[in-house]
Amino acid sequence: MLMAKTQEHRSDYLTARRLAKILALDDFEGVARRHLPRPLFGYIAGASETNASLRDNRNAFAEFGFRPHTLRDVSLRSTATTILGTRYAAPFGIAPMGISALMAYRGDIVLARAAAEADIPMIMSGSSLIPLEEVAKAAPHSWFQAYLPGEPDRIDALLDRVAAAGFGTLLLTVDVAILPNRENNVRAGFSTPLRPSLRLAWQGLTHPSWTVGTFARTLLNHGMPHFENSYATRGAPIIARSVSRDFGKRDHLNWEHLEQIRRRWKGRLVVKGIMRADDALRAAEYGVDGIIVSNHGGRQLDGTLAPLRVLPRIAEAAGDKTTVMLDGGVRRGTDVLKALALGAKFVFVGRPFLYAAAVGGHAGVMKAANILSEEIWRDMALLGINSIEELTTDYIERLRGD
Ligand SMILES: Cc1cc2nc3c(=O)[nH]c(=O)nc-3n(C[C@H](O)[C@H](O)[C@H](O)COP(=O)(O)O)c2cc1C
């Protein structure tokens, strides 16, 4: 008992020390690089092939500048905003990220609970290692993201399970027809399932705070993690010598399945991974409540344009027909405000939140959410606005040619 308490205090102390030096979302990356075994860090940080889209996601933000208003009373400003009928404290949420519970102890629950406390939405990934019912219980307002195959029976079975767990918002990711080419994962020794090897064991030995605080603790308290939510039934374990994951007929998924999903799913439906105005309009015709303009953080088709570049066209075409959101490369309050000025109603942030959960658990995710909220709040004053709804293209200008 005493040993457990001492251990807990030591880990609280280490967490506080790690977090004390973090001033911006990007600061989490360096701390996570040291804390996580190389294959796991590489899985989060990397993208596909040459990482061209990953880089462009960031570069695109630098191509826009602000035109602030001055001499306006901004003392009553608020970062609160409403998305899909719910009012949140800030115009950003946590993007869905697979195998979070391997990066942070009970990762999905940590992210979901901290998001609920910060009053922002969190999207639970379908490629996750904790049964979705447990996350819904811990944080009932989380959203659920599904990777669905083009197989009607499996679609219905998963949707019924998600609905029975009480999720109100379903997100369908549509940019994953097949597995991408992530050479960096192969080089870093990452695969799902992870294959036991001397190299992997060495990574465990040389990253003891992850091995003890996340991995061993998970094994001890919950057993070997499995993919729990890809389908209605349990999937492969996260470490296995010869088991393969079942990805189903993802490459069969098409608009007819979206129609089927819309008929069966009674809650709010969001499609993630739309990059074209015509697809956005078609999704709206099929009755989706919102879309996320996204290239999956550069992790699917390398060379896909940055979401910020296609956002204005999509937002203009979509008008009021569906709610347009964006993710990819959002790291600063100024990035959030740029995306909103260019037509997004809300944005999502991926990697920094997973790093934050890995290195700081609940406190880490709260710190990340606070940093971004405070940046937005400060930037709003300097831009001359009191509410998120005031943002329009009037506040922003492209620096270089179109
Ligand atoms: C480690 C990791 C795992 C991810 N897993 C999923 C997933 O399971 N489902 C999904 O729709 N998107 C997934 N994504 C993509 C994110 O939801 C999001 O689109 C992307 O990370 C946004 O870019 P950012 O990391 O630059 O903020 C993942 C991204 C990362 C970094």
Characterization of this structure:
- This protein is of the alpha/beta class and 402 residues long.
- The protein has one domain (2-391): Aldolase class I (TIM Barrel), CATH 3.20.20.
- 47% of the residues lie in helices and 11% in strands.
- Helix 1 (2-20) crosses helix 16 and helix 6 (107-118) runs parallel beside helix 16.
- The model has no long low-confidence stretch (mean pLDDT 96).
- The protein binds flavin mononucleotide.
- Flavin mononucleotide binds next to helix 3 and helix 16.
Mind sketching the topology for me?
Blueprint: H1 2-20, H2 27-35, H3 38-45, H4 52-62, E1 64-66, E2 81-83, E3 86-88, E4 92-94, H5 100-103, H6 107-118, E5 123-124, H7 132-138, E6 143-146, H8 152-165, E7 169-173, H9 183-188, H10 198-206, H11 208-222, H12 255-264, E8 268-274, H13 277-285, E9 290-293, H14 307-318, E10 323-327, H15 333-341, E11 346-349, H16 351-383, E12 396-398
Parallel strand pairs: 4-11, 5-6, 6-7, 7-8, 8-9, 9-10, 10-11
Antiparallel strand pairs: 1-12, 2-3
The structure holds flavin mononucleotide (FMN).
